[in-house]
Structures are given as structure tokens and as C-alpha cells.
Amino acid sequence: MQSRPTTTAEGRRYRPVTSRNIHKTAFWEKLDPEIREAVSVVSQVLPFRSNEYVVEELIDWSNIPHDPIFQLTFPQPGMLAPDVYRRMRRLMEQGDKGALESAVREVRLSLNPHPAGQLTHNVPKLNGRPLPGLQHKYDETVLFFPARGQTCHAYCTYCFRWAQFVDLPEMQFQATESKDLAAYLKVHPEVSDVLVTGGDPLIMKTRVLRNYLEPLLTDELAHVSNIRIGSKSPAYWPQRFVTDDDADDLLRFFEEIVATGRHVALMAHYSHPVELSTPMAQEAVRRIRNTGAQIRAQGPCIRHVNDDSDAWAKLWREAVALGIVPYYMFVERDTGARSYFELPLVRVYEIFRDAYSQVTGLARTVRGPSMSAFPGKVRVLGVSEIRGEKVFVLDMLQGRKSEWVRRPFYAKFDPRATWLDQLRPAFAERFFFQEEPQALRMVGAA
Ligand SMILES: *Cc1c(COP(=O)(O)O)cnc(C)c1O
Ligand code: SF4
């Protein structure tokens, strides 16, 4: 695991809180023994990392274990199946390192570390050579995973990229430089967007980020008009934009990209309105927006964290007031500790609708609830009754094939279904996008 501590303007290092040093924190002794045990046991398998800001300013320690940010960043007993949990605990007690390591590995592999065919189906090629650290699933957008941006200021317990943070090297996909990306973009004029993602690319020093992105800002790549950066820093470490020693450099760099005539979009991962409540978080938003960059808010709807329509309505309302554009609400993905965090699709849809109906039209730019599944981003439009049959109405906001987008389709209503693969088509043998299995593999290949 790479963990490069950031220095603040005062030269003070921020301290990550991990399973190694948590025993020394002020709150450790106050935690319930059951929670302390869960932190030790679960963090063997799934990555754990928090930091001083999250711990001191976002978590309400009088509301443990229910506090949403505590659930968001601290391992919870329910995150492993009871038998797996007991097995891990027993192996830890026995102290046989080898046995523990191989069990950890086995459990990790059982948790679907790379959902939606990320490794096998979206890797683009240049002259027949696969390009590591790139993904090209939807025509207009290429995802770029810089090697130095594959960690975060804190880890979400529900993280869908968790496999990037643990020691499964053959499972990580990351690029060490952007030469391949620039060469690929040169022969792909259909690409208008590069989405730099991780982890959190803003864990990188500005100097490093610059090295990656400057090669994309040439006239030759004028078709790449939108530079997007996926980041949780505005929520987990807003100091990145305010007091870090290279905070101002980062903002100047955003300004420089904007001056080339490009749109800079910070795709900010917000999970809960408390993340927008601190003066530091609000100052970060003001400073980013002053550069001409736009901030768009997105995040998944998660049991124990934000399965609450009032919380979403508040998040979108406060986002709009600060000039942030609400963008996506996602469905918890089919990986990691999903059984603890997932919600039935119908429940997520109700939360979305209830929140959406409470907010100004300015916040109704948000779309969802959306599943980032193999064929595309599938949205639950609603529940309806057609010819006496109760159905889910769905469509795609993004599709492996662009002609799949915004074509409504139907699935049999299932009150327990939590993901697309559990849905069965209504009024048809197959979903329309299942009729061209061969074509699936071609999209994204050069
Ligand atoms: C969501 C996503 C994008 C970006 O989609 P937009 O709808 O343009 O925000 C690009 N690639 C992948 C793989 C995605 O999941
Ligand atoms: S910010 Fe994103 S990549 Fe980082 S831990 Fe959270 S979900 Fe995972």
C-alpha cells in the first residue's frame, strides 16, 4: 500500500489513522470492545485508513456506531460473513502468519475484487499492445489511472476499488506515465473526456499531477476538451485545496487548463451532507470554483451511511448553494462488503425519488439511481404496472454501445433484487442488450 503523507502549509504532516496506529488514538479506549475487535479482524481483509480531519471533524463520537462517517470509514463487524469473521479471528489468535495470509487472500478473491469486467473487457490497445492503466468503455470518455494516484486520504468501507489498495499486485491496473494515453488519444478523435481516477488522483503532489496531464493539453489533442478528475479530497481532506503546501499550485494548474479552453470538472465523491458542513470544506469549494473549474457531486446510496432521503436532499441543496452541480446517485456495487452495505433497488429508488422531489430544479441535474454494470450505467427509472404485471422500468445513461442509451426496458419486479444480474426480463426472453454478445467485446478495442 502506498501512503505518502501530505504536508500542510505549516509543514505539519497529517497523520493517517490505520490499523497500525489506531491503538494510540484518543478515541480507541472509548470504543466498544466489539468494535475494536472488528477493526482488527476486518482490516486484515479489507483496507482501513482514516485521518485526523475525518476523525476529529466529521465523526460525531457521541453517536457510535451509527454515525454515518464512522460507518463510512471504520471497519464494521458485519462487513465479513459471520463464518469468515470467526475464521479470521481464530487464525489471528493462533498467530500462524502463513495460514492467515493465505486465508486473507482466499477471502479477498471471493469478494469479486474487479466488478463489471474492469480488467478483462475495457483495456484499450494501441497497435495491438494493451495499455495498462487505461479503460475505454464509453466512446467519449477514457479513464486514466495514474500509478501514483491509487490511494486515498481515507478509505470508504464500501469502496469498489478496494482491490487497488491491498496487496494483490496482479490485480492492480495503473499507468506509470501518460505517453501511452496521449498516443492513444491522438488516434481516437471521438474521445472528448479524460477522466483521471484512482483511488484519488489528488493524493498526488501537484508536480506529479502536472507531469501526467500536461502532455494532454496540446493543440493536437484539442478534441480532448474536458479534463475530469475523480476525487474524494473535497470531502476527506479539503486542506488539499486550502493549506497543503502545494494547494495554491494545484489551483494555478486548474486555471492553466481552463486557459487552454478546456473544461476542468472535479468529479467529487460526496457521501453525506456533513462532508460539506465544515468551514474547511466550504473554503475548498470556493477556491476550486474560483479557478473556473466546475465541481460535480456523485456518490453511492449505502445502507448504514446514507440510506436516508433527507440526507440526500440536504446534500444536494447545500451542494447547489455552494455552486456544486449534483450529478449521479449510484447503487452500491457488487464487490467487497456488499452484503453489509447493499440496499434493494426498490429502496434506493424510493430514497432517490423522495430526495429529488424535495429539491429545487437546480439540484435535479442529479441522475440515478444508477448501476455501473457490465453493459453500462443502468438507471432505475421507476416501478410500474403494465398489463397487470409489476415491473421495474430501466434505461441506460451510458452503454457499451451508444445506441443502447435511453431506451426504456422492463424487468420483473423483485423487492429483494440489489443488482442488475438479479433482474429477469419482463415481456421478453432477454434484455435487448443481451442479443449481441459478440459485439460487447469490440467496444473499447483500438
Ligand atoms: C461513469 C463512467 C464514465 C463517465 O460517464 P459520464 O456519464 O460521462 O459521467 C466513463 N467511464 C466509465 C467506465 C464510467 O463508469
Ligand atoms: S474515495 Fe473512492 S476510491 Fe477512495 S476509498 Fe472511497 S470509494 Fe474507494
Break the fold down into its secondary structure elements and pairings.
Blueprint: E1 16-17, H1 33-45, E2 50-51, H2 52-58, H3 68-73, H4 82-94, H5 97-110, H6 118-121, E3 125-126, E4 129-130, E5 134-138, E6 141-144, H7 179-186, E7 193-196, H8 206-213, E8 226-231, H9 233-236, H10 247-259, E9 263-269, H11 279-289, E10 294-301, H12 309-321, E11 325-331, H13 338-341, H14 345-356, E12 367-372, E13 376-386, E14 389-399, E15 409-412, H15 437-440
Parallel strand pairs: 6-7, 7-8, 8-9, 9-10, 10-11, 11-12
Antiparallel strand pairs: 1-2, 3-4, 5-6, 12-13, 13-14, 14-15
Helix pairs in contact: 4-5, 12-14
Bound molecules: pyridoxal-5'-phosphate and iron/sulfur cluster.
Pyridoxal-5'-phosphate is lined by residues 135, 137-138, 141, 143, 195, 372, 377, 397-398.
